[in-house]
Amino acid sequence: MQFSERWLRTFADPPLASEELAARMTMGGLEVEAIDPVAPPFSDVVIALVRAVTRHPNAAKLTVCDVEIGGGRLLSIVCGAPNVAAGVKVACALEGALLPGDVRITRATIRGVASHGMLCSARELGLSDDHGGLLLLTGDAPIGQSLREYLTLDDRRFTIKLTPNRGDCLGVFGVAREVAALTGAPLKSLAETPVVATSSERLTVAIQATDLCGRFSGRVIRGLNARAPTPDWIKQRLERSGQRPISALVDISNYVLLELGRPSHVFDLDRVRGGLAVRWGRGEPVTLLNGQSIDVDETFGVIADDAGVVALAGIMGGARTAVSLDTCNIYLEAAFWWPQAIRGRSRRLNFSTDAAHRFERGTDYATTVADLERITRLIVDTCGTPQTQIGPIDDQVLELPQRPPVRMRVARCRRILGIDLQEHEMAAAFSALALPFVRDRAGDLVVTPPSYRFDLEIEEDLIEEVARLWGFARIPARPPVAAAVMRSRRESERSIHDVGRALAAMGYQELITFSFVPESWERDFASNDVPIRVLNPIASQHAVMRTTLIGSLVSALKFNLNRQATRVRVFEIGRTYLRDPRRVDGPLAVAGLNETLRIAGLAYGAAVDEQWSERKDLVDFFDVKGDLEQLLAGLELRFEAAPHPALHPGRGARVLRPPRSDAPTQDSARQEIGWIGELHPRLRQVYELPQAPVVFELDVAAALEHALPRVATVPRFPLVQRDLALWFNETVRYQDVLDTVAALVASDPRLRPLIGFRLFDLYRGRVEDSSKVAGADANVLLNKGKSLAFRVVLQDTDRTLSDTDADAAMAALVAGLQERLGGSLRQ
Fold it and tell me: What are the tens digits of pLDDT across the range 659-671?
């Protein structure tokens, strides 16, 4: 929110410099983001009257002007502006004047004619970008007065950032009310004299939805001149608040919105058909002031006449009844719309308005009539004519918010703030804020929230008000008095930051994304047709809570590919939200909702950065599988092929781990901790990816575990290496071989020296003539078999293994694999 400092000081003018005032406001909860001058510095520019204009003798496009600058002084100035004419008042830079951009004005001779100064445009003074002609001033501008003084250009623009609960400060008067409370400066109210009604005309307004509108005030005014110019002081304050002046009727409505925080609407009465009705929408079409045409459903409140919708309640008026320069008769409206009936509606239409911004936070329901009088007074003073007829205010009070008193315990206030405040100091804070209060029998303070403070509902709200008025900076920083207990982490458990650093060391970059995602992501990446919906999403693409992190990673990949990235490695540690009827409410839990922390990663493009010594292979399943095994080293992971909606049907696997050491003895099954695989070809096509990325997603709890180092004797005896090649049926998996070997080692003492068993070759032969292959080899090949070759490493810590020991171990391996998996020794 922007506003002029001078405007603010017309209501509350504390004896503080701009910077001191901004600091006091910020510490009081109204954060001042910026203080900017409304105009750049310049000097010696005065208001001048052009007395006469003659053509330059030596230049067709130049004129010589006789300019009066006050005190009877006349200057001869050469000017090339197209709008210079005798009788206009302009800004004149005198000799020696310093203009923006370090431009110094000196006496000059232009085409043989002396010029003693310069007539200035708004752009040359840094006031706007308009350089089509001179800056023309009104006829009552005093000749010879400093332009900075006349236009109050030494003013400053305050930009404040309000928290969503402070809707009462969305007007300059509301901010001044806070400034007066924070600084002790007197607050000057408007005290507007009511406009005397000169007619009895009323417009029939029927309130058909009291859950939409709690109070509706309006009046008819006829015989106005909408072409009357907006007063300069109103235009000036609008411009310094970031508003563009349009016309008198619109400008006055906008001005009162900025001044009092009161949104209002001006209808062209001649375009209203019959009376008005305030109700919920019925699927009717309407064209709004911004030109957007929509169909209004039953979730939007509307103001309608006999011909249809003329305004979206609390959001924007309709184009059909909009005022124009030809408007003569108007209907003024100021209403209280229930915040819950307005909240979130404008975002659903992909735009926001100043009115909706205020109504959805709550506006003062007690001042609709007084604010309507203020608007009326400004309109009549600006656009009134001898024929103006002003109707009485029709004020319909239907259902207003109930403001129950809020009790603040004095002892609790002291305990929460940690300072020994006296009861009278707390009371002084409420008095400064004009909050009505009484003392109960227990000595506590009971406050009745005023009509403009929708943020005062519980005891903690009142404690915050006391803290603001006392001063946050005055609250001492004291160490906690509770005993601090150091909580140690298990040696086998690492922190989540360690996990992130480990992935970063592998070349992955961390992402932080929203937990709410488009509904399409849930369907695509999780096959979730009933996601958890956000009641009031900040945008339409953030409508549901995510159950997987994969969609966020794919979106980030697409973003980077569109910016010519060729190799992407990203990961995210974030929360997912799944429905779980077993969950009950608790301090950190919500019934029916299971919130879990997960870690996901994505790899795309070349397996390694391009370099002369490496092949340009694309990253594949096994590259990312290796990253996972490195990340979870020591957990003895197992990867089993299984279907997943986001993964390639033949290139996806679930990740299993052994049971935890602290798990019950009967729970010996491996636990699923996540998934890994290539992105599904369908999703690759939907998201227009040139290649398929490889993704993984794990429970963070599993990633936090890591194996502890084990002490082992350094072997003093040589190891023995043997190679073993066996034929297996195509259905036999490498994991089956590993599991079988592990079981043989545990049961056969001949295999006690086995310390290494690794696959190094896979062969699938093609036989044209089976008669050329003898024995078991031919049978296996003809049955679509495969040959697996293993490197077997044997070593004993007590003695040197003999050939007999090695042969016995190899025989035990061959026999066990043949018996359990049907393997046969390759000839």
Answer: 765 555 444 567 8
